[in-house]
Amino acid sequence: MKTETSEYQKKLVKEKYSQIAAQNEDTSNAGCCGTTACDTIDCNIMADDYTALKGYVAGADLGLGCGLPTEFAKIIEGDTVVDLGSGAGNDCFVARSIVGGTGKIFGIDFTEKMIERAKANAEKLNYKNVEFRYGDIENIPLAGGIADVVVSNCVLNLVPDKNQAFAEIFRILKKGGHFSVSDIVLEGDLPEGLQKSAEMYVGCVSGAIQKDSYLSIIESAGFGNIRVQKEKRISLPEETINQYLTADQATEFNKGKRGIFSITVYAEKPESCCAPGCCN
């Protein structure tokens, strides 16, 4: 049953992001929810502004992120960087501007249309050291110990098996390598109706788990020096809150610590360890 549910979730995500990838550049910034669920709500509510970052390519920015992981990822010239859920290539191109011609960038995505769009963008830029591969984050199509840095932007929460996803990140990182990922987590229990509404308008909330559980998965995968580099509360539209909460409940919710949060998390693969996959 779990496998069937996971495959169904992946199917829904692939369909949604295929639709987004097929849009032209003038209408691509639809946010995590895609185009069909945005009639009355600003779906770019989670996205951070990339435009000031070196390497930014407007045609590769689909407005699907919830942070700026490349800004915090401590990438240096010559690094090999892997972007999980690379979309149209936005974070890959920002990372490429840092690693230069001596580095290597791999973008992994399991939506064929996103891979096609990313490859087209890379070809226009004549980037020979940026490679996009079709693949599942639960089974990354890369050799172990290949990456200095892994980044990901608002994607891992959509992966059904997060334990396997972080185990795969651990596997592909070199000893002493690190990751910086931006993702969506929950703090406290959201009222049922409010959570369902949020999932409808922000697809990235689907699959989000409690922040403590998220960090525990990272620790269980063998990572060390885990820290939250950035955290921001996602403000839900007032009309959505008022639809499901009384005035007093809404006031308490807006002032409280419960809610949906975007976090950017950093962690390192130890130089030496006994965890599974550590010596790959």
Defining key terms:
globular, 7 strands, alpha/beta, Rossmann fold, 7-stranded mixed β-sheet, 21% strand, 280 residues
Give the CATH topology. Answer: Rossmann fold
Strand content: 15-25%
Average pLDDT number: 82
Distance between the termini: 32 Å
Number of domains: 1
Cα Rg: 18 Å
Helix content: 25-40%
Tell me the overall shape: globular
Spell out the helices and strands N to C: HHEHEHEEHEHHEHHE
The spatial strand order of the largest sheet comes to 3-2-1-4-5-7-6
Quaternary class: single chain
Return the CATH architecture: 3-Layer(aba) Sandwich
Largest sheet: 7 strands, mixed
Q: Would you identify the regions where 5 or more consecutive residues have pLDDT less than 50?
A: 24-43
Q: What is the name of the CATH superfamily?
A: Vaccinia Virus protein VP39
Brief rundown of the structure:
The chain has one domain: 3-Layer(aba) Sandwich (Rossmann fold). It contains nine helices and seven strands; from the N terminus they run ααβαβαββαβααβααβ. It has helices at residues 2-22, 69-72, 90-99, 112-125, 162-172, 192-201, 211-220, 238-244, 247-255, and strands at 80-84, 104-109, 130-134, 147-153, 173-187, 224-233, 259-268.
Secondary-structure blueprint of this entry?
Layout: H1 2-22, H2 69-72, E1 80-84, H3 90-99, E2 104-109, H4 112-125, E3 130-134, E4 147-153, H5 162-172, E5 173-187, H6 192-201, H7 211-220, E6 224-233, H8 238-244, H9 247-255, E7 259-268
Parallel strand pairs: 1-2, 1-4, 2-3, 4-5
Antiparallel strand pairs: 5-7, 6-7
